[in-house]
C-alpha cells in the first residue's frame, strides 16, 4: 500500500500530529505521578529532614533529562525520530516498580535518573516530530498543543496521584498510573507513530528554493555555540528556558512542603500543586497560537515578568486562597513562555540543524530542574522555604529584562532576524 505524498502543515498531517500529542500527554503523566507524592514520601516514610538532600531526586532528574535532550536531537538526525522515541519508553519500564518497592531514598534517586532519560528522549522527539510535520506557518500553535498536552497531563496525574495517596496511601497506588502510561505509550509509539525526517528534508528543500541557496552545514560545536551564546534570539531563549524550569523544579520539590507546613491536607496540597501545570497546560492552547500572530519576543518577556510577580505572591501567601491565585498566575506566565520559546528556536534554526538546536536549547532549559533543586535546597536550608521562592522571583525578573533588551523578534512575518 503506497503512502500519500509528503506535505507540510497541521491539517495535512492531523492524524499523526494528534497521535504525537497523545504520546506527549503520557510523557507528562510520568512526571505528574511524582509531583505530589514524592516530597511527602521523603518526609513521612524516609524521614528526610534537609531540603538539599530531599531535592536530590529533582537534581538528578534535571541533570539526566538535560544531558539526554542534547543527545536526543543529535540521535534524531542520525538514526531517525521514531527509534529514539521508542528507546525512551523502554528506559522508563523499571521506574514505577522502583518507586513502589524502594527500601531507601537511593532507589528513588536512581528511578529519577531513568525518568530524566525517558523524558529527554521522548519529549524532545515529540517536539522535533511536530515541528517536522507542521512547517513554519503554524509552529507556535503546534508547540502550544504539544506543551498543553504534556503539562495538562502533569496536572491531571498530580491530582489523581494525590487522590490515590489520600485514599490508599503513598505507595503503591499513585505509581500504578505510570505503569499504565508506559504500556500504552509503547504500544502507540511502536505500532502507529511514523518517522518524520522526510518532512524536515522537504522543508529544507523549500527553504533553499525560497532563498536561492541552501544554508551551510553546521558542526555540532557550531550549533551548540550559536544556540548557547552567539545568536541573540537562540541564547536568550536558552537562558529564559533555564530560569523557567528552575521555577518548576523548585516548585516540584518545595511547594508541597510549604503548603503542607501551613496545615493544608494532602488533597488540597495536590490541588495547589496541580493548578500551576493545569493553567500552564491549558494556557498554551491560546499563547502558542497568539505567538504566530503577535510574535515571540513580547510574550516571552511578559511571561517571565508575570512569573516573577507570581512567585513573590507565593512567598508572602499564607492560606489556600492566596496560594491558589498565585499558582494560577504562575501557570499563566509560564504558558506565555513555554511554547513560544520552542517556536522561536524553530524560527531561527535551519531545518538541517534544527533538531540539534532544539536539543541544545532543551539541554539548557532542563538544566533548570537541577538549578532549581540546588537553589531551592541550599537557600531553604540556610534561610527558609520562603527565601528560596524569593530567590526564584528575582531570577525571573532578571530573565525577563534580559529578553527585553537582547532578543530580536523571530517570527518570519513580523520581522527579519539580523545576519549572523
UniProtKB/TrEMBL annotation:
The chain crosses the membrane at residues 12-31, 51-72, 84-102, 108-129, 141-163, 175-193, 242-263, 269-287, 299-317, 323-346. This is Arabinose efflux permease family protein. Residues 13-411 form the Major facilitator superfamily (MFS) profile domain. Its main location: membrane. It is a multi-pass membrane protein. GO terms for molecular function: transmembrane transporter activity. Pfam families: MFS_1.
Amino acid at each position: 500500500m503506497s503512502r500519500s505524498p509528503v506535505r507540510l502543515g497541521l491539517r495535512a498531517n492531523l492524524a499523526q500530529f494528534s497521535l504525537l500529542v497523545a504520546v506527549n500527554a503520557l510523557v507528562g503523566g510520568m512526571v505528574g505521578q511524582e509531583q505530589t507524592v514524592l516530597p511527602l514520601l521523603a518526609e513521612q516514610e524516609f524521614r528526610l529532614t534537609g531540603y538539599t538532600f530531599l531535592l536530590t531526586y529533582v537534581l538528578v532528574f534535571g541533570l539526566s533529562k538535560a544531558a539526554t535532550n542534547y543527545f536526543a536531537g543529535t540521535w534524531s538526525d542520525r538514526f531517525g525520530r521514531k527509534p529514539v522515541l521508542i528507546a525512551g519508553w523502554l528506559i522508563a519500564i523499571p521506574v514505577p516498580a522502583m518507586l513502589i518497592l524502594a527500601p531507601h531514598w537511593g532507589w528513588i534517586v536512581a528511578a529519577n535518573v531513568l525518568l530524566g532519560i525517558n523524558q529527554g528522549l521522548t519529549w524532545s522527539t515529540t517536539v522535533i516530530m511536530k515541528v517536522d510535520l507542521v512547517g513554519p506557518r503554524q509552529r507556535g500553535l503546534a508547540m502550544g498543543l504539544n506543551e498543553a498536552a504534556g503539562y495538562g497531563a502533569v496536572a491531571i496525574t498530580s491530582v489523581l496521584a494525590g487522590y490515590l495517596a489520600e485514599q490508599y496511601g503513598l505507595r503503591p497506588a499513585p505509581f500504578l498510573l505510570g505503569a499504565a502510561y508506559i504500556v500504552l505509550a509503547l504500544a502507540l509509539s511502536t505500532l502507529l507513530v511514523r518517522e518524520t525526517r522526510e518532512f524536515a528534508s522537504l522543508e529544507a528543500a523549500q527553504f533553499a528554493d525560497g532563498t536561492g541557496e541552501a544554508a551551510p552545514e553546521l558542526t555540532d560545536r557550531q550549533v551548540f555555540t550559536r544556540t548557547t551564546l552567539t545568536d541573540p534570539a537562540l541564547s536568550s531563549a536558552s537562558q529564559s528556558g533555564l530560569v523557567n524550569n528552575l521555577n518548576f523544579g523548585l516548585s516540584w520539590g518545595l511547594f508541597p512542603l510549604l503548603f503542607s507546613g501551613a496545615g493544608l491536607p494532602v488533597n488540597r496540597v495536590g490541588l495547589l500543586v496541580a493548578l500551576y501545570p493545569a493553567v500552564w497546560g491549558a494556557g498554551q492552547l491560546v499563547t502558542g497560537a497568539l505567538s504566530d500572530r503577535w510574535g515571540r519576543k513580547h510574550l516571552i518577556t511578559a511571561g517571565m515578568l508575570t512569573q516573577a510577580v507570581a512567585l513573590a505572591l507565593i512567598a508572602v501567601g499564607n492560606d489556600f486562597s492566596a496560594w491558589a491565585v498565585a499558582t494560577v498566575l504562575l501557570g499563566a506566565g509560564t504558558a506565555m513562555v513555554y511554547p513560544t520559546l520552542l517556536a522561536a528556536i524553530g524560527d531561527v534554526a535551519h531545518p538541517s540543524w534544527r533538531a540539534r538546536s532544539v536539543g541544545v536549547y532543551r539541554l539548557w532549559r532542563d538544566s533548570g530542574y537541577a538549578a532549581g533543586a540546588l537553589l531551592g535546597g541550599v537557600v531553604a536550608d540556610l534561610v527558609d522555604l520562603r527565601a528560596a521562592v524569593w530567590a526564584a522571583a528575582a531570577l525571573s525578573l532578571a530573565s525577563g529584562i534580559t529578553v527585553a533588551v537582547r532578543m530580536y523578534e523571530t517570527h518570519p512575518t513580523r520581522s527579519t532576524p539580523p545576519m549572523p
